[in-house]
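Table S2 (text version). Query chain:
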Amino acid sequence: MSSLPLLVSSLLGEAKNKIAAQSHLTFSDPALEARILFEYISGKTYSWQIAHAQDPVQSDWLDAFEQALAERLSGKPIAFITGKQGFWSLDLSVNEFTLIPRQDTETLVEACLALGLKDNAQVLDLGTGTGAIALALASERPEWQIIAVDRIAEAVTLAQTNALNNKLSVSFMQSDWFSSVDSQRFDMIVSNPPYVESNSEYLEQGDLRFEPMSALASGQDGLDDIRAIVSQAPAYLHADGWLALEHGSDQAQAISELMHEQGFVQIQHKKDYNGHARVSLAKWPA
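Corresponding structure-token output:
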């Protein structure tokens, strides 16, 4: 006697329960993750999954889905399984050489756009990774002249691919912070640098275990790279130019002090969607 076929709804329900049962996973919605994995292996959208919930699962889909689900249950970030991550209005490719773009970083993009820079502003994005920040800014301000740099060659290649796929114009190049940046000045320097303490237990949790340590940790207090950026940025900023940094939720005061000591003015902080001070901005005085 043959067994009944496995239905799409049953497959998704079982996957949702398995994901939800894993306390070590970082996720926002197990049901959504199950649907994302199914769309990745089948090419079938969310609306198709609803309309065809009672359809049998094709055997080739089942094998591929079980493999993808096993990767997720092992802790691998869903973005690294699918190779994609949404950010702002963009669809970005991701890989193991970069951080996965996160919604909190959209706070940084919003803060930069709100500064009211001139139409042809020159902008430098430090540590661009996937290119998320630079490309989000370019999508909203196509007239800005944006240069984005990263120390990792593979990240630069990935960011260039994301620019092509999203039909956006940004100049990408390899540079260890300012090391390869010509002696030019910018109206804004923006960065989401590493800012986690090197001995933080946070680095051993959830998706972070799979992301590059060099893009996460920055010394015992997490501020080594931010110190370097704050100290060097004035040499690359126009008078009245802005420095905008993402940082940890408990680092705003320390960064404010660093900026003040360096001579920056109009220091301000912006909260992320969870109410944490996530972004610091400061102007280089005329």
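Notes on Table S2: The CA atoms of residues 126 and 166 lie 20 Å apart. The first strand starts at residue 84 and ends at 87.
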